[in-house]
Structures are given as C-alpha cells and as structure tokens.
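Thread title: Can someone regenerate the structure for this chain?

I was given the following input by a collaborator and told the matching structure tokens would be attached. They weren't. Posting the sequence so someone can regenerate them.
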Amino acid sequence: MASKTSSVDLVLEALGGRGRYQKFQYFASNLSVLSASFNLLSIVFVGRHVDHTCKQPVNISDIYRVIDNDFFQANNSILYFDKCNIRVVANISGNVSTSDLSCIYGYEYEEGKETSLMSDMDIVCDRSHLRGFAQTLLIIGQGIGAVILPALSDRYGRRPVQLASHLCVLALGVGVAFAPDYTAFLVIRVFLGIVQQGIVLTSITINIELFHSRHRKLCGLFDSLLWATCNTLIALIAYLMQTYSWRTTQLVYCSVSLFVFVQYFILDESLSWLITNNKTKQVTKNLRKAARISGKDYQTVLNVYKDLQKQKESEKSLTESLLESRDQGVSGKKAGQKEKDKTKSSFLDLMKRKRLAASVFVLWFTWITDSLTVFGLFMTSDSLAGGAHLNFVLFSLLEVPGVFVLYFMVDRYGRKKTSMTLHGIAGIALLVATVFKSEGGGSTWSAIAVPAFSCIGMFGASGAWATSCFFTPEMFPTNLRNFGLGTSSAFARLGGMLAPFASLLAEHVEWAPGTIFGVCCLLVTVLVNVLPESMGKPLPQTLDDVEAWHKKTNAKTADEKNILP
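Best answer:
Regenerated them for you:
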C-alpha cells in the first residue's frame, strides 16, 4: 500500500521534486488565474455606483404640463432635480405645496453615462435592486461549474478542461463588453461563472499534483500571493481607466485571457492524472520532455516509472488470480469490489464510509464559512478610511500576512493546527469588533477598534481560506480529487451568495453579521479536528489510502490520551 501511495511522488522526486519542468508548468497553469480573478471581482468597478440626479428637460416648462394640477406654474414654483425624483415646490397663496415626479427625462450622471455599467443601462432608483443580480448570477454559475467541470477534469484530464474554460472566459469576457442590454449581460455572467470555475479548480489541482508532497506548501503560498496580487491589479486598472467607458475597461480586464493561445502550446497534462489512469504512452512522452527541461537523465526517470508500473501489474495479477481461484465466490466478489474501489471509486463510495463522509461535510461547512466571512467583510469595507480603490487594495493586501502564516505553520505544525489557529483568530477578532461596535456608541476609541479588529478578522479569514484551498485536495483520492474540490467550492458559492445580505441584515440587527461570522469561524475551529492530518504524506490514490489516514490519526489520538496521567 505504501509504495503504491507514493508512486507519483517517486516519479516527481526523480524529476527533482521542484525542478525546472515543474516550475514551468506551474507558471503555465497559474497565469490563467489572472483571468479568473479579473472576471470574478471586476464588477466592483465596472458596475460601480455613479452619483446622479434627474435630468432636466430641454424646455423647463414641459414639466408643468406633465403635472396634473393647474396651480403649479413657472411663476410660483421652484424645481429640485433630486437623485430619484423631480420635486416641484409651489407657493400658492401662502400655502406651500409639493408635487413629486419620477425622472421622466432620464438621469444626469456626474462622471458620464458610459463610465459604469449601472449608469449606462440606468440600473438606478427603482431599478437599483437589480444591481446585485450581476454578482449573484455569476456566483450561481460558479456553483454549477464547480459541480460539473471537476468531474469532467477527473475523467478527461486537467489540461482540456483548463484550456476550454480559459478560451470560453475570453469569449464571454468580450461578450460582456458588448452586451446590448442588462438582460444579456446577466445571462452571459451566468456562463462566465461556470467556466471561471473550470480555470480555478483545475489550476489548484494541477499545482498540487505537480510537486512532491514536501513542496506543496510553496505551491499554496504562491497561489495565494498571486490571487492577492491579481485583486490588487483589479483596483489599479480601474483607477487608471476611470475616464474610459466601462466597456473599454472590461476589454482590458479580459485581454489577459489571450494568454490561452500561448498556454495551448506549453501546458501539459498532469503526470499524476496520466499515471493514475494508465496513459503510458503520454506519460513516457511527458517524462522525456520533463527530464530534458529539468536536466535529469531520462532513462533514470523512466526506470522509476517502469518499476512502479511493474509493481502495479504484479498487484493486479495477484488480485486477478485470487478472483479466479475463488471462482467468483463471496471472497472473490469482495476482492473484486476492493479492486474497483482502488481504481474507479465514485463519490457515492466515499459517502458510504462514515469517517470519510464526516470529513466531507466538515470541509463543505468550512468552505461556506470562509467564503461567507471573506466576502462579507469585503461588503463592509466602507468602514475603512479612503476611497473605493484604496479600500479594495487594503483588503486584498490583508490576505498576504495570512498566507505567510500558512507557509510557516502548515509543514511545521500541520494542516489542522494551521486551520484551527487562523479560524480562531478570525472568530475572536470579529466577535470583539462586534462588541466594540455595539457598545462603543460611536466613540473615538470604537471608531479605531472596529476597523482594526475587522482587519485582523480579514487576516485570519483569508489565511484560513487559503489553508482550506491547500489541504482540501489532499483529502481526496486522485480520481475524486477535483470533484471533491469542486463540491467544496460549490458550497463556498452558497456563502458568497449570502454575503451580500450582511449589510442589509446590519441595518436591522447591527451586531448580527459580525456575530454570525465569528461564531461560524469558531465552530470550524472545533470541527476541523474531525479531519485527518495530511502533513508530509503523499497524495492518496484510493479511498483506502484516505481511510488509512483516519485510522492512523485516531490511533495517534488514543496514544496521546493514554500518555496523559
């Protein structure tokens, strides 16, 4: 069992663990994250709010003809062009009367009508409730993509799903820029969310499968740093494009997806997927290329792979002999089922095992909490000083310290302790911020403490989410890895869909959002104990490998309890 579990890692180690080939493939896969990030959060600036007032008619006297009251005349009335209505105030024989009209002549925007999607399509006033649909529908699309595309990736390979998704993101991104109306814009956003997940999830899986187990934390570190950098670039591009049309800005954002045409020639299929699915011809071809780029002897690397193949064939022949000797008896059926579990296990097979099912439910709740907390804090970023661009950059940069904590803790103290620490920091900080906000009464110390502890909460929550992205793929065998990551991401979309309601809830119950975020983070801190520790272990290839982790974790816990006086 041990040798088979470490088969892919042995091949990767023969290539240098983190040799030039693996770094090159990491680069080829990860640059597509620019496309994923830009299309996820660009709506913050592309669809930003623009100050406006009701537009004045060419002939002011036309307003009085619209009012069905002869007492309102130009000689006794004053006109006020407000944000969402035209007020006509008349002094009639000493009595002040007011008539309100809707913005029947359209709207006047301070920064120009085409500056934002919302101003260009007049998604304001009585249509302002439609603004949220732009992000909500994209998140719904992400949920759909997170369920569908990882399964295709596990079946057909990481590379084709990555490239197809990236190409679709480019096409749909251009479609968004030329959307004729808001309905078309929303429909395109749904499909954009679906393929955006194809990029994100396959990139994470490719990166995890590229490196030996002891180098995975570097992968997690750079993944998170790249994501924070991408988010910062969103605000920088928006700042530089302030005077341009939102359509031009959108084209700038989606232009990074042109990289897909370069990616087609340089991105290879994951060696882990090829080896697990017995794609021998493609494996040998990729190993030759990898050995050449990494400066390793091809024959040595190939011999490692062939030895592993011989061992696998030996195990397969032994199992087949056992099946034949049992003549399809009861024991033979059990052995056949066991062999099936090892090669082509399904998600239902995973759910039938109590320990593994419990881990999956904990992972799902963890992703919901992380998404809800991070996006919820972004929604309340107005509590920080500065303009919209500065606030966005600050919250993006707050992800970096959490990532470095992840890097230095994850292979020293383990995945579980790292996750518990960061979720604990987030939970406590957000609860403290909530108390200060409720009890401070608008005092000076409260105005300083609430943003400060909210920033600490963002530091913990973003680091915790990076940790979840890092160890979730390690909890699943190869043929279920992308599907497991995909379902977890799908549940994260649920948190993302709930997050926009945080500000609405705060208007009625001020302390509720922070309390919910904090309590959920602390609950995750406790529930993470259910998960097995994967530190220093090769990626599992079968359900039996994962279940063995649970048994070892439980045995270790029992030994620790017996040591206690």
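The beta strands are 52-54, 77-81, 86-92, 95-101, 107-109.
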